[in-house]
Amino acid sequence: MNEAEKLKKATYHLWTFTASKMIAMLGANVMAFGISLYILAMTGSAMSFATNMICSVLPRALVAPLAGYVADNFSKKRTILIAQAGTILTVGGLLLYTETVGMSVYAIYIATVFNTICSAFSGVTFSSAIATLVNPERLQRAMSFNQMSMSVAAIGGPVIGGMMYGFFNMDVFLMVNMVAYAIAFCLEATMDFNLYSTRGEDTKKEKMWGGLKSGFHYIKQRNVIKTIMWVALWINLFFSAIAVGGTYIIIELLKVESTHFGFIEASGALGMLLASLYFATRSEVKVPLRFSKISLLLLAGSVGLAVIPLVTDFSYIAIVIFYLIIYFIFAIFEMGINMPIGVYLQKIIAEEYRGRVFGLMETMAMSMMPIGMVVYGMLYDTLPATIILPVTSVIIIIISLVMLRSSILKEAHPEYYEKAALPEGVANTTT
Fold first, then answer.
1. d(Cα 153, Cα 24) in Å, to the nearest integer?
2. Using an 8 Å Cβ cutoff, are 298 and 326 in contact?
3. 86 contacts 142 by C-beta, under 8 angstroms
4. Using alpha carbons only, how large is the chain's radius of gyration in Å?
5. Which CATH number is correct for 1-192, 1.20.1250.20, 3.30.470.20, 3.40.605.10, 3.90.1170.50?
6. What residue stretch is flagged as signal peptide (predicted)?
């Protein structure tokens, strides 16, 4: 295949995987919305709702390293298609069970676990495959489109699900999910996951345990990758302050109506969408780790500002507008952290280790979510939010300054810092 044909195929991939991801995520979000309301309506128990959330997080955190090993050692296309087919069969099984026996919460839990496992395999494999689907010059655009599709699904899923809930029973939600994943399956079946692969066809497959060990060893030997993973772990832990506290502060302490809180959360999805469009249309960030560090510091500062309505005499409308802006800013800065680092990791991680690195990173990040939620849940029950958020903000700033210190940035981008250190006029000379 000549270069012109490869570029044409890469363009096809850019739009095809964006469409497939958007359709699949839309179907998943519609079903998740319907199931959440169904569980609450059927049981009236917050614990049942929380159990389903655990079923959608914990299995993914546990199997992500295994998914990374499979992505590195087996056909990415086959892995993704099998995972998508697994989702369709799981939801189809739940639909059949509902038609013959009747819907039950335990059946939903089991289906959620299998769906989550399938999602882990397809998600990690897709993450490791982006750099082989498109040319390096369009890698940032591809990742931006990927994030954009998730943002659109995050906005559209609850909207569509909310309209459907009053008119259709649970069977329709399940069928919508199956149709969405079937369309995504057909689109992904047309893609060439080896278009820009640098691996030879005779690459030897590693045994599972040896492959996982070599993945750990690869990360251990690369200081910058290791640092990024630790930053991701701590940030996911401490940003639970907003995941837990945002709802608690806005709904419980400030008594904002649930409808208006829905608009506040939607402003975050809108911010993520606009930030994705920005990164899709601009040139690649030249010093991604420094860009992400600045975004992280700004995000940490915004966390501290979130307590302002608690210590001032804001009117109700001013409170809603304030949090609309804050959640919008959160999303913008979050994209400013994730997008440059994501593109940077795609480029510096060797293709044969990409799946395992992303799988382990996902495990570390996701394992912190339930821990952070429990810790901050207890903190908000015992301490005022006006102490928790500013202290968390300071902790995140310290983590950013210490872990993403100048020596790490220089190690990550030696070409930029060496050029910056040269006297004026020397940078343009050649030897």
1. 9
2. no
3. no
4. 23
5. 1.20.1250.20
6. none
Class of CATH domain 209-413: mainly alpha
CA distance 203 to 282: 36
Decide: helix, strand or coil at residue 418. helix
DSSP 8-state assignment for residue 56:
T
pTM above 0.85, yes or no: no
How many Å separate Cα 312 from the centre of its chain? 34
Domain 1-192 identical in fold to domain 209-413: yes
Residue whose C-alpha is closest to residue 388's, from 252, 234, 231, 240: 240
The SS3 call for residue 14 is helix
**Taking Cα atoms as reference points, which of 57, 19, 132, 45 lies closest to residue 362?**
57
| CA count, 13 A, side-chain hemisphere, 255 | 3
Query: Rounded to whole angstroms, how far apart are CA atoms 65 and 109?
Result: 23
The tens place of each residue's pLDDT in the chain, 431 residues long, gives: 678 889 999 999 999 989 999 999 999 988 887 887 787 777 766 567 667 777 888 888 889 999 999 999 889 999 999 999 999 999 999 999 988 988 888 899 999 999 999 999 999 999 899 999 999 888 899 989 888 888 888 778 877 887 787 778 888 989 999 999 999 999 999 999 989 888 765 566 777 788 888 888 898 889 999 999 999 888 888 888 887 788 788 888 888 887 788 788 788 888 988 998 899 888 888 899 999 999 999 999 999 999 999 999 899 999 999 999 999 999 999 999 999 998 999 989 988 889 999 898 888 877 787 788 778 888 888 889 899 999 999 999 999 999 999 999 999 888 877 666 555 555 444 33
